[in-house]
Amino acid sequence: MTAWIAPAAAPQPIPLIAVDGAALPALLDRLGAEVRRWCEGNAFAAQPGQFLGLPGTDGAVTAVLAGCRPTDGLYALASLPPRLPAGDYALDPRGIDLDGDAVALGWALGAYRFTRYRSAPRAPARLVVDAATQARVAPFVAAATQVRDLINTPTEHMGPADLAAAVRDLAGRHGGRYQEWVGEDLLANNFPTIHAVGRAAAPGREPRLAMLTHGPADAPHLVLVGKGVCFDTGGLDLKPADGMRWMKKDMGGAAHAIALAGLVLDQRLPVRLTLLVPAVENAVSGNAFRPGEVITTRAGLSVEIDNTDAEGRLVLCDALALAAEQKPDLVLDFATLTGAARIALGPDLPVLFANREDIAAGLLEAAQATQDPLWRLPLWRPYLTMLDSHIADLANAGPSRHAGAITAALYLERFVPETLPWCHLDVYSWNDGDKPGRPRGGEAQGLRAYFAFLRRRYAG
User: N or C, which terminus of the chain has less Cβ within 10 Å?
Assistant: First the structure.
């Protein structure tokens, strides 16, 4: 069993009675005057996050009252695993009715701790779930855990080769085909922008493009693309210290694409899958790419480098061009692409761009159903003039500080034929602080929504 789950047959789990302020008076009427006095003496008002153990005659805890807000869904009890005393707990029918799958998923997300470099201070409290609930929830827990682990791992242990290894391992587990192009092979095989961004990295950290393929040739072809910038100094347009501090997370888009590919394969969606992860380190050295250079991309479009810190769209554009060459049914890309997206919508709302109304609507509907929010912004094509270059087909950035998330998406769209359905998700991939079910550090955003959409599209 995993750390957050206790088997359904666990001996004597502690009853966990979920209650909100509205339901508390009636519950206390049923539990009796002694429990009422105990709650009043401990100022328990069933506020979200509050909990109170009910002692028996021998002093042992006989049950726990857990305050919550039912509308919080999967986060209603998600703060409890690291806060309750270690042990096994089971939802008690005397409490308000909560969705069991949602509670289990939120509990698991709240129990997560990154322990590669230090042990967790204590084991999380475990929730008793039946086998069917575990089977439904566990794949999403594993996917979110993989995203978090990949992002939380520091750059010295999550360089381009390490990120590509995650793709190779996924291919190996599912009998897929793995291929990669490394260093000068990128130039020989016409991936010039991936090479340009990553060429300044130290030996052993060369840029690469990792590709997984799986599934029958006659199945609908789904391509997932993830930005894998394992560390972003900004290049010669160097970031300040505070802007560079958390740039280990700049491969968050790749982490999402890898985990989503894992869900597609684990759940056996009837698709032909291609996963593309351009993995680089945007470093500074004598051969770093420079502002003012012009690169002819895989798609044949020439790009003037206005800003070396707008590197994510450069590594993505060669991968998108490769995706387009295969004429798939759908292309989905994920990237920690712009600070502008965070300025517009903050850290919790990934920004969705789509060139098909039906696909955007389907994703937003799935986001609502899975409590995994997305927010759509427009591909406002008049803003393409902000990427004008007087010597190349376009620039990778421009002087205007307006609409940065939109202009980045418009840049990517130039590498996607109009006939090809495509969505771009600009994710933050990070929690700046601890929240119920969302501990500080790397975070999966939109993952459940995207998989729900894909399952409905391809499996009915």
Answer: C
